[in-house]
Amino acid sequence: MAETVLRAAEDGALPQIPVGDWIDTGFDWVTDNFSPVFDVISAGTEAGVEGLRDALLFPPPVLFAVLLAVLGGVVRSVRFAVVSLLGLLLLISMRMWEPAMATLALVLVSAVIAVAIGIPIGIAAAKSDRVSAALRPVLDFMQTMPAFVYLVPAVTFFGIGLVPGVVTTIIFAMPPGVRLTELGIRQVDPELVEAGHAFGSPPGRILRGIQLPLALPTIMAGVNQVIMLALSMAVIAGLIGAAGLGGVVVTSISRLDVGLGFEGGLSVVILAIYLDRLTSAFGQRRGRLSGIPSFLSRGGTVGKAGLGASSRSADAVMPVGADQNSPNRPAR
């Protein structure tokens, strides 16, 4: 059977399916009919990224590096603050601060948009099996498609420059946020959700007070992955004219400049490690409110954060007007 199929293919018996021609026709139609929409998106995206980049470059580099290190110390630990400060000072000394801030602006804008789109989609997928089943092949397609392929339609719609880099970064980085949001909400203990329904809490309040707080570590892991993928794609976007460290790497390749390429790659590593450790710290149970005590003292914060989270969950499931002094808390 296999030999017959191969022989038929060699003889031209199997018709050629013009998938590429269909895709080209579709892209031409979209470009002709929605070019004003693409112009608006391009203008807004470019203004947002350039505005954030200018804001990041406004403070003196050393002062801003110290502030970023202090933020890392407040959120994580003193050791992380010291290591972060050394890495950021190395960026300044290599004269990579400006392209690093351009890359950081592109990554932050792309990650915020990807998270803003991905988390609601993940919540919808967690609430509906049909939505989850429909999204699964789409997310698989988005994650298995080679990163360079995303550059072609983006350049077709937006041309060469910063905007297609942001668009490709959003599309490439979104799937982990959707998947881990759905996973985190589905892993919440069903008994807690049933208790919320038993107390008469509406679904929206159960989502805000029980499911999202308990799923927060998993959701933050998804946010962390979104940021990491956005950073990797932002470097690839240097091939289509996106500024930043990606442009430095592309320039080093075109010039065969090993030293410049190493400095650009090392700058990406420093930025990636800082963002990875910073965002992963937000997903820990101690949270933001216990970050300042952890900066001053290493112990005793996890229990307080866990107690606070438990009390917030209890308040979320308790209906308005319930008697808090009663052991059974009956509603009046």
Radius of gyration: 25 Å
Task: Please tally the helical runs, counting DSSP H or I stretches of 4 or more residues.
Answer: 14
- Percent helix, as a range, is over 70%
What is the overall silhouette?
globular
Strand content: under 5%
Q: How many E-type strands?
A: 0
- Listing every helix as H and every strand as E from the N terminus to the C terminus, the arrangement reads HHHHHHHHHHHHHH
Give the helix/strand class: mainly alpha
Distance between the termini: 76 Å
The major pleated sheet works out as: none
Oligomer: single chain
The residue-averaged pLDDT reads 79
| Regions with little confidence, pLDDT below 50 for 5+ residues | 285-332
Outline the structure in words.
- By secondary structure, the chain is mainly α.
- Helix content is about 80%, strand content about 0%.
- The chain has 14 helices and no strands.
- The protein has helices spanning about 1-10, 20-55, 60-75, 80-95, 95-125, 130-145, 150-160, 160-185, 190-200, 205-235, 245-255, 260-280, 290-295, 300-315.
- The N and C termini lie far apart (about 75 Å).
